[in-house]
Batch of 2 targets.
Target 1
Amino acid sequence: QRLGVLHVGQRIEEQADFEKIYKNAWADNANACAKQYAGTGALKTDYTRQRTQWGLIMDGWNSLIRYYKNNFSDGFRQDAIDLFLGNYSVDEVESASPLHVKKDWKFLALPIIMVVAFSMCIICLLMAGDTWTETLAYVLFWGSASFGTFAIILYNGKDFVDAPKLVQKEKMD
């Protein structure tokens, strides 16, 4: 009322159009910030607008994408932020780049083997063989192959994570 937006006696709760515009602006702002920070839209923005089943599904999808990006593809982003903010200083004497790390064969082979084995297990379940013993043998083989590669990946989990490679100044001092 002091700013002249509302008349004397008017309440903000009575202005449905303004409330809708205001909430949508905040939800759009949350999406923009979340895309910069996490790589996906904000979670639960449909609470601000109107909660729907589709919003719940999109929150689950965005959470899965965030989990993947955070663990397997965001190390470079943190390196860029550290370099930009001056948390890492480039050593002019050192010729080798600290960003280039040689990856072992397992980083590509094991996830591919796991996906192929899991897919074959599902295909064997859906396309049953002539006898149930034949189907069971195939499912057990491909299931154990997918479980085995998953166990190896879990055991070597820290090697698969895309961690930042630059060291912060405070840690070097």
Target 2
Amino acid sequence: MVLLVPELTFLTGLSDLRKNSRMLKEVMWEMIQSPQQHYQRLTSLLRRIRDSPDASRELERWGLLLDTDIYRTQGHILPVERINLRHRSFLPAEELGWHREVTKEVPIAVISINSWLLIYPKRLQHLAKDLLAAMRSSCGAMGMQVGQPTVQELRDDRIETYVRAIQSSLGSQDKVQLLLCIIPGGRDDVYGAIKKLCCVQSPVPSQVINAQSLTGHPGKIRSVVQKVLLQINCKLGGQLWGVDIPL
């Protein structure tokens, strides 16, 4: 047993952050500030320390002196890397992302999904239908083929139900390329059980999708499904993109 003195402890982290959208936005705003904003806040803090008599006396007592500006050094900007797909190559935009290109072009190596399992609880059957439709509409542009899955609809979303259904389905199929599960939001226990089963006990590539990510407008669902297809292609041995690496 570890006993902590309350007066000497500090609360860290944020509990139930995902349920508080306002607080989540504030945290994200703090995290994604530009370098210029970081610089302004740091120099503002240095000025406040300099202008505070108490802070100055404390620093002097320790024999410390803070500069009024952060350290400056000479930097070197590397040239932008060219991203290679199967039929074309391109330079990334200023934000250095290329999600749009890889979801509309054929990757270097594509694995077709012919033998796969789709498992979900009965109450999420509408999301499973939307997921399948979005996968079929998105896979063509990426050069992937998605066949009809073997569907297992569960009566509830308990861990034992998922585990038994997966074990039964894997045992009755000769060659399974992929197991795709839809789980209710906030069920990390179900996610952990599925991954343990598919990574340790009955090894098979697996993709677990949170039901919350499949709710919303069609554009959001399509974007999620495109990312899922890219992940699946990698897990099955495909290659999304490459860069030139000269000797």
